[in-house]
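for the record, two folds in this file. i put them one after another cuz i was lazy. first one right below, seq on top, structure tokens after. the second one comes after a little note so u can tell where it starts
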Amino acid sequence: MSSSPADQGPESEVPGGTVPEPEEAAISPVRRHGPVLALFAAAAVFAYGLDQLTKFLVSTGMTEYESIPVLPPLLHWYYIRNSGAAFSIGENYTWVFTIIMTLVSAAVLVYIRRVGSLWWGLALGFLLGGALGNLTDRLFRAPSFGMGHVVDFIQLPNFAIFNVADSAVVTAVTVIVILTLKGVAADGRKRAPGDSGAGDAGEAGK
């Protein structure tokens, strides 16, 4: 029985030429997609779960505007409810931030299917977990649906009061900026300096 060209090895002789071996670069992102999704999901669940747990403990164990020294004078718990964005920016525009966080969460869930880098998966997981953490407050806390005030409680000297979700978002953005500056694309490839994206300079993302 004769074998087909595909069965004769990576570069088997066939009439009119050879059958080249598929380039590894074309399959590498697919091979990594499972671990990337697992890390993405773990980071999102961790950030969201820790955010909601700490907010529950603060809102049930403290009164508003109460301050508790943790590592004085560096760190205090100071319970406030914030109608603005992260770090109390843009108060009185609560509904705008509710829409923005909804769009960000949806965009991350769509984009993650294209990611082949573990670091990008980690960053986007933290971004989703942080966005959903504050979005949950917007939707389900007082004074009303979609207009809820976010629980903030982490106080540092000469700095805004924030929460775990804010920290997760800032961490995600920091990692994304570093990856971008290092030329690591979301698909897991590292671009050569000055590369416009037409070619790859090797694998990255781990």
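(here's the note) second protein begins now
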Amino acid sequence: MRAATHEVAVVGAGPTGLCLAAELARRGVDVVVLERRSAPEPGTRAIGVHPPALAALAPSGAAERILAEAARIPRGIARSGGRAIGEVRFDRLGGPFPFVAAVPQAVTEAAVSAGSPEPMRGAEVLGVVEQPGGALLRARVGTEDTEVRARAVVVAAGAAGRGLVLPRLSGSARACADRYLMADLADAPGQPADTAIVTLDAHGVLESFPLPGGGRRLVAWDAGGADSSRTAVSHEQHADRLRRAVTERTGDVGLAARVQSATAFGIRRSLLHRMRAGRVFAIGDTAHEVSPIGGQGMNLGLLDAVTLAPLLARWLRRTEGDPEPERVLARWEHRRLASARTAARLAGLNTALGRARSPHSHAALIAAISVAAAGPLVRLAARAYAMGFDRDAPRAARRGAAGV
């Protein structure tokens, strides 16, 4: 069997993999994308595109395509017991994109993949073997085995792709007991179209985010999640629990009544110790899976892809004996690992804040948040939730300013 040969093989056709493929193609790199799924998955899943990711995507035109269909969220408020206890203002942070863009993941995928080669779908990559001057991928397409040879391989296939990079890239992983309910509403009259609302309640958090067209995403910590993970529970049963959570935590019976169907999900944390071993790279959720509470996972992957593409293109075309392309890749890996650790810590804090607690502990928490929200820490909170502490955020801001 003769293997097809490319400069770069990307494993995974989610937002991260498609973004990398498009960025490489823009730089004249011959790239192939292999995807296990035969068709894109439906649903909105990740919806928030944060300022650093928007800035990084601006030069390619992807940010403009995203914003053409997105709801813009310039602020978020925290509530408890029917009153506001704090506010974060993304529109006071400066930069070319002073807001979070909320948009279905399918829109983001289409925006970032412009110029990417069409993925080879239904291709399950079984293994990656490094060889002199390149790497060989063994894949199965339907019932047929095939091989792809590339000078570099980037695995961006989420948690499912982690087995392709282990043990050459070791890491740590753990699952959390927390479970959440989620529903997307087509419309939510009376809800602020430009404001995210986080309701902190002794029974657990309820998050409400704007969606394009006046819709709303609701996410609630689920007290019955541990039991439901062991039994078959229908979307209608999930919806019933979510309606009760909305009513109990916000008192908004009308909003609760709009929940017709809901899904449940759990969270995991996984961080690789390295993102590169020779000619094999791992980015996105393959390298660092963090809690979706806070919405930073997809953004981490997009920043991985946009920042890696020019460095990888330069590395592929390096002259013999030039050490600089290796050095800049090492610095890239250091920045992205540090950014993932920061995002994981913030996601862990968000998860902890959203859990159910005793009335006494809840009252103490609300008092502490109220005090912090009245002081200078509130600006740091806005920067943290807008991914301003990502190590590539300053570079992205400069790219965005030049691209808008």
